[in-house]
Design brief:
Helicase, Ruva Protein, domain 3, elongated, 12 helices, Rossmann fold, five-stranded parallel beta sheet, 50% helix, single chain, alpha/beta
């Protein structure tokens, strides 16, 4: 609706994890570098945490695009499953045909595949998003998957991505063996005020902005006060604010546009 008015090629503030729109704040760059380092150095387990909407999934998508054909990757987005379901899901993600619920057979299929990738000088990376939703038993099953190895190297790199609750979960004494294997950790924090302003400008440019619309300083202050610098909330309020600006036919968005956008997001009557 507002895209044509402002001359965008596409909506600038979609909440989908599109890596094209990833803004590398200092924190996002550090998280991304930790992820690349851990995988390249075959550290075995990597843990990336952050608040809801901090950009973890978008970071993950950008990682997949960066590594390209040098790695075989498997992404599990919803880990609320049994151990047998998880193993089948991993095989399916790698393009393999599981043998029903036969755990031994499926582990053998996975092991053969991993060894074949080593022969072709390729590494395999398993990324589990929303890992805080996994139970103790399932996380222990993931640890056992990391036992697939040769004398020289781990055959499977595992990345656990989750909300801060994942850190608390991994502190459980029953998971001490898994916790000891996690050698690369990073916690992604929200954007600063300055970073948020650059983030908004970045997304506008990526969508095709020719300099309009703009946000005045009161609008930016209100956006930050509402979002706390969390990218997903910034997207939500900016998207509504652009609609308000379109309705008013203006190129400069002010504090009252943000106030209206927030009220609509919260479902409050004006």
């Amino acid at each position: 609706m507002y895209e044509e008015f402002y001359g965008f090629r596409e909506p600038p503030f979609n909440i989908t994890p599109d890596p094209r729109f990833l803004f590398f704040s200092d924190r996002h760059r550090e998280a991304f570098d930790h992820l690349l380092f851990g995988v390249a150095q075959r550290k075995g387990f990597i843990q990336i945490t952050g608040e809801v909407g901090a950009g973890k999934t978008t970071l993950c998508r950008a990682f997949f695009e960066t590594v390209g054909d040098d790695y075989e990757t498997a992404l599990i987005l919803n880990p609320r499953m049994t151990s047998s379901q998880l193993l089948r899901a991993v095989l399916a993600e790698l393009g393999l045909e599981p043998e029903g619920d036969d755990r031994i057979a499926n582990l053998e299929i996975l092991n053969r595949f991993l060894l074949d990738q080593v022969a072709h000088s390729k590494d395999v990376v398993l990324v589990i998003d929303e890992a805080q939703d996994m139970g103790i038993d399932l996380l222990e099953e993931v640890r056992l998957l990391s036992n697939l190895e040769t004398d020289q190297r781990k055959l499977l790199q595992i990345v656990l991505i989750g909300q801060p609750e994942l850190r608390d979960l991994l502190d459980d004494k029953r998971l001490r063996q898994l916790r000891q294997r996690i050698t690369v950790r990073y916690h992604l924090t929200p954007l600063s005020t300055h970073e948020m302003e650059h983030y908004i400008g970045h997304r506008l440019r990526m969508a095709g902005s020719n300099g309009r619309p703009t946000f005045d300083r009161w609008a930016l202050r209100r956006i930050y006060r509402y979002s706390g610098g969390v990218p997903r909330l910034v997207n939500a309020v900016c998207d509504k604010a652009l609609l308000c600006g379109f309705v008013d036919g203006v190129d400069r968005l002010k504090g009252h546009h943000i106030r209206r956008a927030i009220r609509e997001l919260e479902g409050k009557i004006r």
